[in-house]
Design a protein that fits this description.
Blueprint: H1 3-13, E1 26-29, E2 34-39, E3 49-56, H2 57-60, H3 70-91, E4 103-104, E5 111-112, E6 118-120, E7 124-131, E8 135-136, E9 139-140, H4 142-161, H5 168-187, E10 193-198, E11 205-207, E12 210-213, E13 228-233, E14 237-245, E15 248-253, H6 259-268, E16 272-273, E17 283-284, E18 288-291, E19 299-302, E20 320-322, H7 327-340, E21 345-349, H8 355-358, H9 362-367, H10 382-389, E22 392-396, E23 409-414, E24 417-420, H11 422-431, E25 468-471, E26 475-478, E27 481-484, H12 494-511, H13 518-532, H14 550-558, H15 568-571
Helix pairs in contact: 1-4, 3-4, 3-5, 12-14, 13-14
This protein binds adenosine-5'-diphosphate (ADP) and magnesium ion.
Length: about 575
């Protein structure tokens, strides 16, 4: 059908009941693109209708070099989504009841993620967006609908999706920046680094609720010379900055001197940021996991015995379950679960750590004997993590010098600038020994991969076989359960959360019918997504999914309160 057909159908529907909109589902050939209407909302207040446009490259004309590498392609798709959002929000306006008049697409923040909102290849460009089909009450506003679909959408397509309408320099800059960041991230391990913060980076944010860069009085980052490293990037050429070596790194310094801000930048360095963010070339080992205390979370069958033993009442810590974890047991479980998912770098901030999990000084060791303290503090395990498993740690620690002994690198933040104080800290540790007894034993301990019980992962309600809903970046409604992810700070976008929710159902449908461990599930799901894309997660094409990492997928599964783990003996076939 053509756009003229669509226009006459819409004019004919004017005044009809909202349900009649169902008739317009289908494909329409416009002069410059194809409009595909995949899903029609039930009423003007319901979630908006799902649309796609496909623009042939003969018309869109994006040069191949802008999407020739995977990094570039993702950067360009991100750019197109942002452009569509920008133009659509200028052109669309309220046209009746509820969501009437809305034309929009995923609204993006600072991160550049792989998403289902935009695709590009040699043949065409596909954009997925939503439309609030207009009505007054429950009566179709056919003339407004015809304007939106047959005039506004072609305008948005022309302004946002034709290469010639766009800022060529800005696009080039975005694809090159993302490609450079990916490239530096790939080089980190060959230089034995866990993270890189370039000179000139702007790390502070505008506010606690606004992730754009701080503009006024922001002090730009400058590496101490002893930690300075250089990379030769494919696009921008040489870049210098601070390289954080593998091993154990402490970030020390007075309160309010920028320690947590640095750690947060490192934490998000697993993702790329848009140019102009200030952190667009801050990069971190992609397998870095932020660890924090999270009292109240549930834990299912985790072997936390490297950290916790001899709980009162004889409760098992090799197979530890609770519906209400304490600060220390939650932090221990967060670490073990990250290791189970193959984390290579742990990021810990004293601001969000349990004190008794982090330190236990000489005096406390004298007063409370080891036999009376279930917790082996992190300070006695952090080295073994590195020597036994090659897992590095970056720890913000302004409050205790006991860690000087176990650190490889000590960085002091002073007025938002980093200084290498490793030698001073080591000298102090020698002159003023902490006299602690190390309590961690001879090895870190085993990481025991767990196998989930299929039936304990149930997305159904009494009405529906699958019910999923996400709220911001904090929460997944999964069947009748709520998965609380407020403490998982490396989930940065609700589109990631939505994809994770679908991915849990996908894993259940495809892989959980057998005995399979969580790391095996993570491998399979992430492999499928890498090979086949996010569309495998849903029955209908959807524009509101974004790629997540295996760690955040595991985090959601681990916080599902119904999750049960197969008995170890069952797993060995003994039961
Ligand atoms: P700490 O963890 O050392 O107590 P924070 O990292 O929380 O300190 O930073 C304290 C405040 O300083 C925050 O409001 C933060 O936005 C601001 N800040 C951090 N780094 C910079 C910087 N480079 N320039 C200006 N302000 C900064
Ligand atoms: Mg802090």
């Amino acid at each position: 059908m053509s756009d003229n057909n669509l226009r006459s159908v819409l004019l004919r529907l004017d005044g009809a009941s909202y349900k009649a909109y169902k008739d317009i589902k289908g494909n329409y050939q416009f002069s410059d693109f194809t409009l595909i209407i995949d899903y029609i909302q039930g009423d003007p207040f319901a979630s908006p209708s799902k649309f796609r446009v496909k623009v042939p490259q003969s018309i869109a004309q994006f040069p191949k070099q802008l999407y020739k590498s995977r990094s570039r392609e993702i950067a360009l798709r991100d750019y197109l989504t942002r452009q569509f959002y920008h133009v659509a929000s200028q052109i669309s306006f309220r046209r009746g009841t509820g969501k009437s008049g809305l034309i929009t697409i995923a609204s993006l923040k600072q991160e550049v993620l792989e998403r289902t909102s935009a695709f590009i290849d040699d043949n065409d460009l596909e954009i997925r967006f939503v439309v609030g089909l207009p009505a007054r009450g429950r009566r179709i506003l056919g003339r407004q609908a015809a304007e939106m679909l047959c005039e506004d959408i072609p305008n948005i397509v022309e302004q946002a999706l034709f290469y010639d309408s766009l800022d060529h320099q800005a696009i080039q800059h975005q694809v090159e920046t993302v490609e450079d960041a990916d490239w530096i991230r790939q080089q980190l391990s060959s230089k034995n680094l866990t993270a890189f913060v370039p000179n000139g980076a702007i790390l502070p944010r505008r506010s606690g609720v606004d992730n754009r860069p701080l503009v006024e009085n922001a002090i730009s980052f400058q590496s101490p010379s002893s930690l300075e490293v250089a990379f030769n990037c494919p696009n921008r050429g040489a870049i210098k900055g601070m390289g954080i070596p593998e091993g154990i790194t402490l970030i020390v310094g007075g309160g309010y001197h920028g320690k947590s801000t640095l750690l947060q930048a490192i934490e998000l360095g697993v993702y790329n940021q848009i140019p102009g963010d200030g952190r667009e070339l801050v990069v971190t080992n992609p397998n870095a996991v932020k660890i924090r205390a999270e009292d109240g979370r549930s834990i299912a069958g985790v072997n936390i015995s490297p950290f916790i033993n001899h709980l009162p009442g004889g409760k098992s810590t090799t197979n530890f379950s609770t519906t209400n974890a304490s600060g220390s047991t939650s932090q221990a479980a967060n670490i073990i679960e990250a290791l189970e998912a193959n984390a290579q770098l742990l990021l810990v901030d004293e601001d969000t750590s349990a004190t008794n999990f982090t330190i236990r000084d000489r005096r406390m060791q004298m007063l409370i004997a080891k036999e009376k303290e279930p917790i082996t503090p992190f300070i006695d395990k952090v080295r073994q993590l590195y020597s036994d498993y090659g897992v590095s740690t970056i720890l913000v620690m302004g409050g205790s010098g006991d860690y000087f002994e176990v650190a490889d690198t000590v960085i002091a933040m002073d007025n938002y600038q980093p200084y290498d104080v490793t030698e001073q800290a080591k000298a102090i540790a020698k002159d003023y020994p902490s006299n602690r007894n190390t309590e961690g034993g001879t090895a870190f301990g085993e990481i025991t991969p767990r196998a989930p019980v299929n039936s304990s992962i149930d997305p159904s309600t009494h009405k529906r076989s699958v019910k999923l809903k996400v709220r911001e970046v904090d929460d997944i409604a999964f069947g009748t359960e709520d998965i609380d992810l407020a403490a998982v700070s490396q989930i940065v976008d609700s589109a990631q959360l939505r994809a994770i929710a679908y991915a849990i159902v996908y894993a259940k449908d495809h892989y959980l019918d057998r005995q399979i461990t969580i790391p095996e599930i993570l491998d399979l799901v992430m492999r499928d997504l890498a090979e086949q894309g996010l569309d495998i997660l849903t029955d209908f094409t959807q524009g509101d999914l974004a790629l997540f990492r295996r760690f955040e997928f595991a985090a959601a599964l681990n916080r599902l309160r119904t999750l049960k783990i197969r008995d170890e003996n069952f797993f060995k076939g003994e039961i």
